[in-house]
Amino acid sequence: MKKKAVVLLSGGLDSSTCLAIAKAEGFDPLAVTFDYGQRHRVELEAARRVADAASVPLMTVRFDMRLWGGSALTSDRIDVPSAAEAHGGIPVTYVPARNLIFLSFGVSYAETVEARDLYIGVNSLDYSGYPDCRPDFISSFSRTAQLGTRAVDDGWTFQIHAPLQNLRKNEIIRRGLDLGVDYSLTHSCYDPLPDGMPCERCESCYLRTRAFEELGLTDPLLEKKRMKLGKKA
Amino acid sequence: MKKKAVVLLSGGLDSSTCLAIAKAEGFDPLAVTFDYGQRHRVELEAARRVADAASVPLMTVRFDMRLWGGSALTSDRIDVPSAAEAHGGIPVTYVPARNLIFLSFGVSYAETVEARDLYIGVNSLDYSGYPDCRPDFISSFSRTAQLGTRAVDDGWTFQIHAPLQNLRKNEIIRRGLDLGVDYSLTHSCYDPLPDGMPCERCESCYLRTRAFEELGLTDPLLEKKRMKLGKKA
Q1: pLDDT band at A126 (very low <50, low <70, confident <90, very high)
Q2: Which domain holds residue A202?
């Protein structure tokens, strides 16, 4: 029997690739997604499509980060900037401690179902500068999870996998394509149009589009958008 | 102006004392409580009473740990054992990664409101052996919070306070009484009676009752229970 691994799945490009990697690394994945009051709530449908396409069960955890907001993604009073407006430092799309919360739920779920492995699709090369995507944070979290669970008493190791950590965005896509990921099912945009299609303005759209272009490819999601627009015109 | 501190408040004896300590240490506390599907949901009312008595705002974060259960406190299929039935090791009332999740929400809230201090009422002397109450876990979490938030880029320190960490339960009560905590407002029982009163069977009741007795006192909550029973009889 394959070993279970919990995989955090937002429905974005990175986490969808991460899910395929967990499978390729021989695990039986259990996906978790988070309905936290995000502006781009449409990503939840993407998580469902991606999990279904991979025949992986998906658990949705619900809570409301709009209680305190503090990010363009969880407050309607802060606009999502365009990639061109992005400045140095941590951008307003940063959601305080979001990955810390996601990982903590992942650990709870994993510990309960006796999975010792947890995957998260963070990367810190073509990223938005969020502190909770960096290797130092992930390795410190790993130690914290080890000390705060049964692992410490029972003598097994809680392993946090961040297989995309040191990959460029185009390398992530290349790896995903090799593993058969269908990126037309995913969603990355922070500020989607009313029909759920990418805005092509925000930094997340920018990083994604550029990476496909670097590979000489067109993002299949943009092809979908163009087709939709064509039908309307 | 006083500095803000986020205080995790379950409504139990420990966290209520912790709130009083945060105030005594000169902070302006913002309390957070968690409605996570706990069997002893009545503790949420206690958190409200305690916050009101201290004139502190209280935020309630809701999520459902019954999604995966795995604890007597979050699954109806696992009974709460009596203190006498408690064995060595981590008991079935342990909720996987609960404090990790609570602390993570606390960090998110604190970072958003620009509080650099977070209080949690864990202690590891008269406790149930939960790994997420121990000093090693708290100090590792502290480091993780530092690395995963704006603190690391902006050069300030995220401080996790666990002022009860090395106190015996009776010392906690003594400290709380000195600070004017009204323990009749609190709730500690894992498996409350239908009217919300303590069961006097579970380990949490046992540790609490014994600590009051060690001080030559009667738990004011038990006095309340006796009075209620007297009225009925």
Answers
A1: confident
A2: 3-232
Asked whether the beta carbons of A121 and A165 are under 8 A apart, the reply is no
Interchain CB contact of B156 with A (< 8 Å): no
The nearest CA of chain B is from the CA of A126 a distance in Å of 18
What's the first-to-final CA gap in chain A, in angstroms? 52
In Å, how far is A75's CA from the nearest CA of chain B? 12
Quick check: A20 and A27 in contact, CB under 8 A? no
**For residue A27, what are the β-bridge partners?**
A3
Indicate the pTM of the whole model: 0.95
ipTM exceeding 0.90, yes/no: yes
Q: What is the pLDDT of residue B87?
A: 67
> Which chain A residues in 76-105 lie under 8 Å from chain B, judged by CB atoms?
89-90, 94-101, 103-105
- Residue B81 to residue B87: CA distance in whole angstroms: 10
Is the pLDDT at B21 greater than 80, yes or no? yes
Query: Is residue B7 scored above 90 in pLDDT?
Result: yes
| pLDDT for res A115 | 97
Number of domains comprising chain B: 1
Q: Do B97 and A148 touch (CB under 8 A)?
A: yes
Other C-beta atoms closer than 10 Å to the C-beta of B77 total 6
Structure tokens at B232: 């009925």
Interface of B with A in 51-80 (CB under 8 A): 59, 61-65, 67-70
pLDDT at B85: 81
Looking at the complex, does the CB of residue A150 fall below 8 Å from at least one CB of chain B?
A: yes
The two structure tokens encoding residue A84: 């061109």
Is the pLDDT score of B233 beyond 70?
A: no
B228 φ, ψ (degrees, to nearest 5): -60, -45
**pLDDT for residue A74 is more than 80:** yes
CATH (domain of B162): 3.40.50.620
- What was the pLDDT predicted at B88? 73
- Please name the residues in contact with A111: beta carbons below 8 A apart, sequence gap of 6 or more: A149, A150, A151, A158, B70, B96, B97
The string of DSSP codes covering A93-121 is T--TTHHHHHHHHHHHHHHHTT--EEE--
8 Å CB contact of A68 and B59: yes
